[in-house]
Amino acid sequence: MAAPASFLDIVWLARWPILYGLGTTVAISLLAILGGSILGVALGLALSYGNRFVRLLARGYTDFVRGTPVLVLVLASYYILGTVGLDLSPFQAGVLALTVFCSSHVGEITRGALQTLPKGQGEAGRAIGLTFGQIFRYILGPQALRLGLPAWINTAAEMVKASTLLSVIGVAELLLRTQEIISRSFMSLEFYLLAGFLYFTINTAIERLGRYAERRLSAA
User: Are 140 and 122 spatial neighbours (Cβ–Cβ below 8 Å)?
Assistant: First the structure.
């Protein structure tokens, strides 16, 4: 094993590729979580309040995506879409695949949270003349958010982990950058431990922000 000083020297020399990979991982994860959450809430509403046809479509989409490995979604987004004329960069294809995967999980979280709420609350809102949008915004949405937030935090953390799969299509995220450095330095254990620590740091930050949001919502 190399002396600690030599490892630190190599880390310093490779600081920009590591930081670039870390930034790419964070960007992909944030975009996937944001896009997946927006689409997932729409799916949850469709599953809970859509007509029979809408519910059938939403259920088919959700079950299909949840039953498909993330790696298959990644490869399909990059290679299959390219064959039909939709040429996405590796970064764009990766964000799309993770967004789709995230949306299926958030959709189920939203559906479960909404169906937990008493039906009388929505009926009371309609009785006083509120539109569905107002009912969801002021009555159902805030309560569903409190109920679904712990599961959403776990889903967000899973998106960070799933971002490691994007190296197979050439996205220069943290894992790929780490592997490139290892191929030159031959310090596998040290750099994989460093990458693991950085992933742990990202997920810890997500968890802390989620817990903070939980406390704020509980106090509201």
Answer: yes
Please report the domains of the chain, with CATH numbers, ordered by start residue.
Answer: 4-219 (1.10.3720.10)
Neighbours of 138 (CB within 10 A): 11
117 or 2, which is more confident = 117
Average confidence score pLDDT of the chain: 89
Helix ranges, 76-171 (H):
81-83, 90-116, 119-127, 132-135, 141-162
Residue with tokens 């937030």, as numbered in its chain:
149
pLDDT value of position 84:
81
Q: Examine the pLDDT at 22 and tell me if it is beyond 60.
A: yes
Residue 126 tokens read as: 């309609």
pLDDT digits (tens, 9 = 90+) for 126-151: 878 778 788 888 888 888 888 899 89
> Buried (b) or exposed (e) across 66-103, using 16+ Cβ within 10 A?
eeeebeebbbebbeebeeeeeebebbbbbbbbbbbbbb
